[in-house]
Design goal:
Blueprint (H helix, E strand, L loop, with lengths): L1 H13 L20 E2 L12 E7 L17 E3 L2 E5 L5 E5 L5 E5 L21 E3 L2 E5 L4 E6 L5 E6 L15 E3 L2 E4 L11 E6 L5 E6 L10 H7 L20 E4 L4 E5 L8 H4 L11 E6 L5 E6 L14 E8 L2 E8 L5 E6 L5 E6 L6 E4 L6 E3 L10 E3 L13 E3 L4 E8 L2 E5 L14 E4 L6 H4 L8 E8 L4 E5 L10 E4 L3 E5 L4 E6 L5 E6 L9 E5 L2 E8 L22 E7 L26 H15 L20 H4 L2 H7 L16 H22 L1
Parallel strand pairs: 1-32
Antiparallel strand pairs: 2-38, 3-4, 4-5, 5-6, 7-8, 8-9, 9-10, 11-12, 12-13, 13-14, 15-16, 16-17, 17-18, 19-20, 20-21, 21-22, 23-24, 25-28, 26-27, 27-30, 28-29, 30-31, 32-33, 33-34, 34-35, 36-37, 37-38
Helix pairs in contact: 5-8, 7-8
The chain binds pyrroloquinoline quinone and calcium ion.
The site of calcium ion has 6 residues, from loops.
Protein name: PQQ-dependent dehydrogenase, methanol/ethanol family
InterPro entries: Cyt_c-like_dom (IPR009056), Cyt_c-like_dom_sf (IPR036909), PQQ_b-propeller_rpt (IPR018391), PQQ_MeOH/EtOH_DH (IPR017512), PQQ_rpt_dom (IPR002372), Quinoprotein_ADH-like_sf (IPR011047)
Organism: Kordiimonas pumila
């Protein structure tokens, strides 16, 4: 008996992975499980969790606070993370003292290419280097001790298109991999691998065909899945904007590919076709980038059903053998288990209510399309909605229990085709719009429409492909997840709570009110014998307006890093939110109604993708509550970029002086009308 214990002890000392106390990569380990083996904080003492310290000194431009989506890294006592505008921070992980900060000075104009805020999901660490990707497309290697740049390389192939980067780079041996974003603007997706040593390009893989002739069998295979009438001025889409995973066992990387440009397949590729590799998982040789296999989750996608969501590597029993699998819950509502060796679909089951499809055909392994989801010539009511049943918010996987803890979005929206296609560089090019189900369509949802939108956390048995438990509903757009061997699952919420659940049965065991909406995933680390939980807070990203029940309706939306430990203190909250009322003392009293009505349309086409409509609370400043003098300087702001540093880009390529007069007329007329009503 004693030698068994000794062996176990030896195992613990020597075979414990090196990352047991650090958090050295985006998903904790190469498999990206986000399951930590730390147990100091556990089910018995979770009630004692409290506040340790916070870091609040983020680079903020102008009045606009942005979202925080990064997963911090903790390596040898230092925390590394990226915030809005791709600024990288290195902090003492015990105290929160800033060690260095690297600001890549992303041009404010780059915000023009943001579908979903100027955010960043994190950095990579390897051999005393921090590798960061900037929103405007550069990959930078920094000395981890000092933050001094070692090399910097431009990852964009075509700067006339609206590419951006929000995803975290991933390390694969001596290479670093990075994709990009812009699927909503008309770009051609690709992933690039660079040598860590000097930043030189090792390989690049395009996810959709280009305009050049096809030389390889893979590009011919892709091409054959697109119509010959494809309008390549949209460039196809297929951005690799989030998940890339390195399989150390097989020397491969798996990439998750995004939606097409434009969204409706019938507009994109008239005449049909699956449009490879949109909405697909693709396996590539890590050293060369050569194609190995793919599995397309949503053939001919028309709903922004990206397959960019987190990919986690696992092993599952199948008969008598152990199969290396990858698991993913993409936006489209199905949970996939795929054989890593060959891309074979092992199983797929809906993790939320799904209306666009009636299941996966067991023979063809393809989804069975529900024709009602097609919105050509009529609205299509679809669940999940375009933000997905699951978005970028990371999930966690306990490999022993074979259970995933998944942040799920419950939402249904109505899609409509949108003729607008006045192609100006820098405009959203999706040719579709989404709206709340109308009185005409919502009865069609039946019980599929109940209580949406909201968030839930689900425990999902990967082997059985079924739900184990589900949390109570939370405000929409809840955060990423961390699971620990202490029997706990952590998740932040838009309502500002950091919650801990009993992993086995989903009982809520702690709920700490931080006053700050949390979208990012928590991490945990251990230093000097003390376990910490750290999470970035701050609302933004693809969620533009503050959801009902969310913290920023009550407290100022601020970027924060919050760190917790046992027997901590009371959590300080941000200041109460200043009331934002429509107000101006502008003196204009007579209006040109035709001009104002044109302005309303221009606002909707160009401004509303960032600025919310009147009365809707959001973190991008409202155009209904500007200081009066700004209404008279709109032209210099919009056409000459006088506020571009703050992230209000120049629109001289798509709007002119007459347009600005119209937008101004609309806003001032609306404010005047309101003032009249009040008197
Ligand atoms: O197609 C794309 O290139 C692309 C990029 C991004 C991004 O990089 O943030 C998002 C999306 N799509 C997207 O569809 C989406 O729902 C989304 C949410 C968020 C976010 O940060 O909250 N980004 C993105
Ligand atoms: Ca997208």
């Amino acid at each position: 008996m004693r030698w068994v214990i000794a062996l176990v002890a030896l195992y613990c000392i020597f075979l414990q992975p090196a990352w047991s106390e650090d958090w050295p990569s985006y998903g904790l380990n190469p498999e990206e499980t986000r399951f930590s083996n730390l147990t100091d904080i556990n089910l018995d003492n979770i009630g004692r969790l409290g506040f340790a310290w916070s870091f609040e000194n983020f680079v903020v431009r102008g009045r606009t606070h942005r979202g925080n989506e990064a997963t911090p890294l903790m390596v040898a006592g230092t925390l590394y993370f990226s915030g809005p505008w791709s600024v990288v921070y290195a902090l003492d992980a015990r105290t929160g003292t800033l060690i260095w900060q690297y600001d890549p000075d992303v041009a404010g104009q780059a915000a023009r290419s943001a579908c979903c805020d100027v955010i960043s999901r994190g950095v990579a660490y390897t051999n005393d280097r921090i590798i960061a990707a900037t929103f405007d497309g550069y990959l930078v290697s920094l000395n981890a001790q000092t933050g001094t740049p070692v090399w910097r390389t431009d990852t964009f192939t075509d700067r006339s298109r609206n590419y951006s980067i929000t995803g975290a780079p991933r390390i694969a041996g001596d290479l670093v991999l990075i994709g990009n974003s812009g699927g909503e603007f008309g770009v051609r997706g690709y992933v690039s691998a660079y040598h860590i040593l000097d930043g030189s390009l090792a390989w690049r893989f395009y996810t959709v065909p280009g305009v050049e002739p096809d030389i390889s069998d893979v590009s011919k295979m892709m091409r054959n899945s697109w119509s010959i009438n494809t309008d390549w001025s949209y460039a196809g889409g297929g951005t690799v904007w989030d998940s890339i995973v390195y399989d150390t066992e097989m020397g491969r990387v798996y990439i998750g590919v995004g939606n097409g440009s434009p969204w409706p397949a019938w507009e994109r590729s008239p005449g049909g076709g699956d449009n490879l590799f949109l909405s697909s998982l693709v396996a590539l040789d890590a050293k060369t980038g050569a194609y190995i296999w793919h599995y397309q989750t949503t053939p001919a996608d028309s709903w922004d059903y990206t397959a960019t969501q987190q990919i986690t590597l696992a092993h599952l029993a199948e008969g008598n053998s152990h199969v290396p699998v990858l698991i993913q819950a993409p936006k489209n509502g199905y949970f996939y288990v795929i054989d890593r060796r060959n891309g074979r679909l092992i199983s797929a089951e809906p993790y939320t209510k799904v209306t666009w499809s009636k299941g996966i055909d067991p023979d063809t392994k393809r989804p069975i399309l529900n024709e009602e989801a097609i919105y050509s010539g009529k609205p299509g009511l679809v669940r999940p909605a375009h933000m997905g049943g699951h978005n970028w918010q990371p999930m966690a996987y306990n490999p022993d229990a074979q259970v995933v803890f998944l942040p799920v979005l419950e939402e249904a929206l109505e899609y409509q085709g949108y003729e607008k296609d006045r192609y100006k560089a820098g405009e959203i090019r999706v040719k579709a719009r989404v709206k709340q189900p109308s009185s005409e369509t919502s009865p069609l949802l039946g019980d599929y429409g109940e209580g949406v939108p909201h968030s839930v956390l689900k425990a999902w048995d990967v082997a059985l492909q079924k739900e184990v438990w589900s949390s109570d509903p939370m405000p929409w757009w809840a955060g990423g997840v961390l699971a620990t061997a202490g029997g706990l699952v952590f998740q932040g919420g838009a309502d500002g709570y950091l919650r801990a659940y009993n992993a086995e049965d989903g009982t809520l065991v702690a709920a700490l009110d931080t006053g700050s909406a949390i979208m990012a995933a928590p991490i945990t680390y251990r230093l000097d014998g003390e376990q910490y939980i750290a999470v970035l807070a701050g609302f933004g990203g693809g969620a533009k307006t503050f959801p009902s029940g969310s913290a920023p309706l009550q407290f100022e939306n601020r970027e924060r890093l919050l760190v917790f430990k046992l027997d901590g203190k009371q959590i300080p909250k941000p200041p109460s939110r200043a009331a934002t009322t429509s107000r101006t003392s502008h003196s204009q009293t007579s209006f040109d109604f035709r001009l104002a009505s044109r302005g309303q349309k221009l606002f909707s086409d160009h401004c509303s993708r960032c600025h919310a409509f009147k009365g809707v609370p959001a973190n991008i400043p409202s155009l209904w509550s500007m200081p009066p003098e700004l209404y008279d300087t709109l032209e210099s702001i919009v056409l000459r970029g006088s506020m571009s540093y703050a992230g209000m880009p120049m629109f001289a390529d798509s709007l002119d002086s007459e347009d600005i007069k119209a937008i101004r007329e609309y806003l001032l007329f609306d404010l005047y009308r309101e003032r009249k009503k009040q008197h």
